[in-house]
Amino acid sequence: MGKFNSSSVLRFIANGGRNLSNFHSFNTISTHTQALSNNPMPVKRNPKLYDSFDNVADALIFFNKMIEQYPKPSIVEFTKLLAAIVRMKHYAVVVSMCRQMELFGISHDAFSLNILINCFCQLGRIDFGSSVLGKMLKLGVEPGIVTFSTLMNGFCKQSKFSQAVSLFDEMVEKGYKPDLIVYNTVLNGLCKSGSTDTAVRFLRMMEERGFEPNVVAYGTVIDCFCKKGLLKEALDLFSELKVKGNRPNIVIYSCLIHAMCNWGQRKEVMRLLNEMRENNVPLDIFTYSILIDMYCMNGGNGFRS
């Protein structure tokens, strides 16, 4: 498997190489951490049960205790704490903690750096997230599928779809084999951008590379077609999904039923409902809501003919 280098990173990282210490929240969160560390309130739980933290104050107090220990805990222990704070969605706090860990000479590993990338992406700072990838390369830490998937998802959330696709191409070029999560991340981004044609081509590219699209991948494109009113294309892809032996889920059926209701396709709606019953696919609350809305809109007389 090929490895990334600094020159290749420049192909898809905007403003790469920026010093992470410039991130504006470091000082403010550090001050908050210091204030909490002076709080005499004890940690009332087993410190190793990181999942038991239910508030960031206790987690930060425990972090300060870890920093002050000698010898200091391993990066594995710090990573468990970082992950617990991420689950509480305190992303800026994690960024500040990572910076402090560096200042105290605690070396990051792939897991902690992936957490840092995710936090920057969640904060809408994909530029800093990309810089962490550059940092990984300089440290000799090999990025993995999680790294790329997180960054591509970050690019897609900011509607930077071309950069997400460029990163995908770069990853494949370097010998990394994308998994379904990576493919579906890019596919979802293309659909959200309204690039239906490109999304279909990407779906075909998956097949050409020997990676069979799953129900989630098909459902993403079908939903895109439905939202654009391209009902024939949506049904064609729906048929293809079934021909390949895949069982459509309630999400796909609901997308199609919603679109058919909007366009008054009563017979098609009934056909889909009958098909769901035959395949033992139960309706969920979303599907019921669609049917009730359309029934009410037609004065209780069913669907438009």
TrEMBL record:
Mapped PPR repeat ranges: 109-143, 144-178, 179-213, 214-248, 249-283
Coiled-coil intervals: none
UniProt keyword list: Repeat
Family: Belongs to the PPR family. P subfamily.
Domain of life the protein comes from: Eukaryota
Protein name according to UniProt: Uncharacterized protein
Organism: Hibiscus sabdariffa
A family per Pfam: PPR_2
Keyword Transferase annotated: no
